[in-house]
Design brief:
The protein is α+β, with helices and mostly antiparallel strands. It contains five helices and 13 strands. The chain has two domains: 101 residues, Beta Barrel (Lipocalin), CATH 2.40.128; 146 residues, Nuclear Transport Factor 2, Chain: A (Roll).
């Protein structure tokens, strides 16, 4: 992640256990803070240093007029700020505050939907192309919830299913759409049943892992037999929308641009 993804223009209230502070990200080099109540109450514009950490994480540090120093880890995926402040008298404060955004940023900075799509693509290809049962533990939440009535609940059941898959099973990913913690992916799977099926899988992501799954499957009708003459599934549809192929591709992209 590069510095140009820092959410300049964002205004937010950060609620710590003992007080609340309003932050305005004026630029990549300046920040305004306002503490309205309590012994720390004041307003100040400070020079900051911003270090992108990747995955919508930024380290932001500054020194205040009275000599206090502050280092924040701003986590825009989880809406948290981890703050480490040394007061003029030497007191060290370690605090975690929740974020409420009061004005949106002037730039698009949220990488979570893009990373969630990469996670789903990696999971689907690892399990149903490479038949890699070990990927289940790495990519799926421990309390994974399954809404397909033909598949038993839980991560262990999914791992056993993948370990027993026939070599004939092969999944082709297509278009994926992500919003918030949810990803929907359109694909085709062969070898799962007697005829190829077109499927839409819907996942909920929590803590960077797949936590819940729904799906709808339909037997594929060849384009030549369809009334419209248009294929139900096109494996190139995802590429046309510039989807990363998997998590590894996503990480390589971050390395090149961040």
């Amino acid at each position: 992640m590069s510095l140009d993804r820092f959410p300049v223009g964002l205004e937010m209230d950060v609620s710590y256990p003992e007080f609340r502070v309003s932050l305005t990200l004026l630029s990549t080099t300046r920040l305004k803070f306002e503490i309205k109540e309590g012994p720390l109450a004041r307003t100040e514009v400070v020079d900051i240093h911003v270090l992108p950490l990747g995955n919508s994480l930024f380290a932001v540090s500054w020194q205040e007029k009275d000599g206090a120093t502050v280092a924040n880890i701003q986590d825009y995926d989880r809406h948290l700020v981890h703050s480490f402040a040394t007061l003029p008298d030497g007191t060290l404060l370690r605090m975690t505050g929740t974020v409420a955004i009061t004005r949106t940023s002037d730039v698009v900075f949220d990488d979570q939907p893009r990373r969630n799509k990469a996670l789903v693509l990696e999971a689907m290809t690892a399990l149903f192309q490479r038949r890699d049962a070990s990927a289940v533990e790495r990519l799926y939440a421990r309390d994974y919830v399954q809404h397909n009535p033909d598949i038993p609940q839980g991560r262990d059941a999914l791992q056993a299913l993948v370990a027993d898959l026939s070599d004939a099973v092969h999944y082709e990913p297509g278009l994926a759409i992500a919003e918030g913690d949810f990803v929907a992916i359109h694909g085709r799977i062969r070898g799962w049943s007697e005829k190829p099926q077109v499927v839409i899988d819907l996942f909920r992501i929590e803590g960077g892992k797949l936590a819940e799954h729904w799906d709808v499957l339909q037997e594929e009708v060849p384009a030549s037999a369809a009334r419209t003459g248009i294929a139900m599934f096109d494996p190139g549809e995802g590429v046309r929308f510039h989807q990363p192929r998997n998590v590894a591709d996503e990480q390589r992209t971050e390395t090149r641009h961040g």
